[in-house]
Write a structure and sequence with these properties.
The protein has 478 residues and is α/β, with parallel strands linked by helices. 46% of the residues lie in helices and 10% in strands. The protein is globular.
Length: 478
């Protein structure tokens, strides 16, 4: 079958929205981490913007592997976004202009120094920012150590951003706006602090300049985006009549909330549906704790109960009821009241989205990187409840399920997909649940540091893990 490219756009069915006939955009955005979520989410907003403002084409930079950027390059940056919902649609995205991998450092440096580039976004997952559990930069991280030693090819996002900002300062060019789009609470503030901390090690003048002149907006992004697979590629080929090996899929719902930093970002993202606000924190807390917290809970509990996808887990009546109660009783009471944000309506909408049978969001994918995700998704809710004098039963069970999940994987010699996978397996391979919980807390893995001094919460989590490991679901009220 003929491959999707600019030369074959005219072969698309007339019903498929695409950039055919649109002027080729110039590059105004550099994006690190062009995985499925970026291409299904931010790039879709940018693609809509390019219909009337061609300055904001994207240069996609992959720091680890050429695979994604090579697939994009083979299709001239074009790919299909399949919206999977009751009424499924397909749209060809044409927002990407350059495709850079680990061997293209010189081109990446040149783009970061280009005054036409105003915005540098990133989706490198939580672990890609090299941050400790408290959100500070880990100066001993291998990638940070490498970049601080001096290199023309940084390994870390922080190293790349500092290199680009240094080049612009040296040339007298205004800084670009770095904008993280990963699920980290206060991600803009944390990235800004990391840039300053990195730079202060060797160049205090540059550190002061970044601290005073570089604005890093916090963001909240939301859209369920399952991994692409052969079934998706086959469905897309049938729909558009062309082969597309870079296709991505997501639900119809998409949300991009961006902090108002008082100066223009460059692209007018509000004009294509992004929310610009001075209170990103309330939106991100609701998303991280309600949607992402529930997602992780469904992943660990669902996998232990034999489910494979989010929709499968929601078909487990007891599990669906448990997650609903956890959101209602443990999570929402600890969230701030925000004008325009109806938390109960958001809860109902999230659970309805989880039930979408067309979206096959694998639980084993969601379960990855738990040591990085859980402090924000569940740990913050646990801490908030404990400070309020409450023991959040649902969150305790969810965290106990993670411990039981680790224990099962470690003792069955099944790989744990996590940056700390080996350490997690070592901690969970033997001993009682209480001992496993203590090891994880001592190692700073997955749990908030406040648990060190909270014997009651530690005991409750260990008890839940023990009951779940024995298959005693009624003993944890599930």
């Amino acid at each position: 079958m003929t491959r999707l490219t600019h030369a074959t756009l005219d072969q698309l069915p007339a019903t498929i929205e695409s950039p055919r006939g649109r002027a080729m955009p110039s590059i105004g955005i550099v994006h690190f981490g062009p995985g499925a979520f970026h291409r299904a989410h931010q790039a879709a907003y940018i693609d809509a913007l390019l219909d009337h403002d061609p300055r904001w084409g994207i240069a996609a930079v992959s720091m680890r592997s050429k695979r994604t950027v090579a697939a994009l390059a083979e299709q001239d940056g074009l790919y299909t976004l399949a919206i999977r919902d009751a009424q499924s649609t397909n749209r060809v995205i044409g927002a990407h202009r350059r495709f850079l991998g680990p061997d293209d450092a010189a081109e990446t440096h040149a783009l970061l120094a280009d005054p036409a580039v105003r915005l540098v976004t990133s989706t490198v997952t939580e672990k890609g920012y090299c941050l400790a559990a408290d959100g500070t930069l880990v100066l001993s991280h291998a990638d940070i150590v490498h970049d601080l030693a001096g290199t023309t090819t940084p390994r870390s996002l922080v190293g790349w951003l500092v290199a680009g900002l240094a080049a612009r300062r040296n040339a007298g060019i205004a800084p670009f706006v770095p904008m993280p789009c990963d699920n980290l609470a206060s991600n803009g503030a944390k990235l800004h602090a990391a840039l300053v901390a990195f730079t202060r090690v060797g160049d205090t003048d540059l550190a002061d300049w970044i601290a005073g002149e570089v604005s890093v907006p916090s963001t909240m992004v939301d859209s369920i985006t399952p991994a692409s697979d052969v079934a998706l590629y086959d469905d897309v080929a049938q729909a558009i009549g062309l082969e597309d090996l870079a296709a991505v899929q997501r639900e119809s719902f998409a949300q991009w909330v961006i902090e108002d930093i008082g100066t223009p970002l460059g692209p007018d993202l509000a004009s294509v549906g992004a929310t610009i606000t001075t209170d990103v924190a309330s939106y991100e807390k609701a998303k991280l704790r309600i949607l992402n917290g529930a997602h992780s809970t469904l992943a660990y509990v669902g996998l232990l109960r034999g489910a494979a996808s989010v929709a499968d887990a929601m078909n487990d009546v007891a599990l669906a009821r448990f997650v609903d109660a956890m959101i209602r009783d443990d999570i929402i009471p600890m969230l701030p009241s925000t004008p325009g944000l109806d938390l109960d309506a958001y809860r109902a909408a999230v659970l309805q989205r989880f039930r979408n049978p067309v979206i096959v969001h694998r639980l084993d994918q969601i379960a990855q990187d738990g040591s990085q995700k859980l402090p924000y998704r569940l740990g913050d809710t646990l801490v908030a409840n404990r400070r309020a004098g409450r023991m959040p039963a649902g969150v305790v069970i969810a965290l106990g399920a993670w411990v039981a999940f680790l224990t099962q994987r470690a003792r069955d010699n099944i790989p744990i997909f996590d940056p700390a996978g080996d350490r997690l397996a070592s901690a969970a391979r033997d001993g009682t649940p209480a001992e496993v919980v203590a090891r994880l807390i001592d190692a700073g893995l997955g749990f908030p540091p406040e648990l060190r001094d909270d014997a009651a919460a530690r005991s409750a989590i260990a008890d839940a893990a023990e009951r779940i490991s024995r298959g005693n679901w009624s003993g944890v009220n599930l």
